[in-house]
Amino acid sequence: MEMQALVVDDEAPARNELIFMLENSKVNFRVREADNGKKALELVNNHNFDVIFLDIQMPSLTGLEVAAEILKVEDKPEIVFVTAYDEYAIKAFELNAVDYLLKPFSRKRFEETINRVMSHSKKDRIKDTIKINKAISQLTPELKRIPVNSKRGRIKLLKPSEIYYATTEGGKVFITSEEGVFEFANGLKELEEMLNLPQFFRCHRSYLVNLSKVKELIPWFKGNYYLIINDESEEEIPVGRTRVNELKKKLNL
């Protein structure tokens, strides 16, 4: 997942060092830069940043003044203050900063900040997903949407009719849809309960399939079956032996 970062500092060497560290971080950052507060606010109004690294002492607009303006933005990015002065720390956290980097800082300290940013963002996404799931559970089938993790930490809403199938892999749930493959924040059982529509069938303990997207049913050895998905990949989805009879009833076989 690519994250959008903005580095704001009136000193070019400081900006360049931070940009280098971000671009060589374990997280995939796309980085923009600004050398003053006014340019920073212009960029914030035109881009959806995940995190902003903000120097405090700058001419014209200080970092604290810039942060106060950013708090008015609807989709607020995380803010990390970067400064050589520790007397601003209390004020920084009053402005909901996720961290406060004191110059000069080590690579280890920088990575701690990245972990904090990622953890904070993940918690917010989980809270948002829970709220969305609750609202979706009250919708009619025509309005139902499934929230999935998209790029830049956004939550995308899929129509059930767009979903081919969902599967578990490495403890995570992935939904294959007409728009691509997306990660679902909860388990396969929770997804099955959310969909709760006639066309969706739990054909295997690791698969939930949209039967309206199936083009073939292939008999296999020992009474097993495979479902062939009607897409370019023609993915073969296994049917568990204990689910075969239920599948036949659904398909009137």
From TrEMBL:
SMART domains for the chain: LytTR (SM00850), REC (SM00448)
Ranges of residues in domain Response regulatory: 4-118
GO molecular function: DNA binding; phosphorelay response regulator activity
Domain HTH LytTR-type: 146-253
Spans traversing the lipid bilayer: none
UniProt keyword terms in alphabetical order: Phosphoprotein
4-aspartylphosphate modified-residue sites: D55
Entry function: May play the central regulatory role in sporulation. It may be an element of the effector pathway responsible for the activation of sporulation genes in response to nutritional stress. Spo0A may act in concert with spo0H (a sigma factor) to control the expression of some genes that are critical to the sporulation process.
Protein's recorded name: Stage 0 sporulation protein A homolog
Taxonomic source organism: Halothermothrix orenii (strain H 168 / OCM 544 / DSM 9562)
Lineage: Bacteria, Bacillati, Bacillota, Clostridia, Halanaerobiales
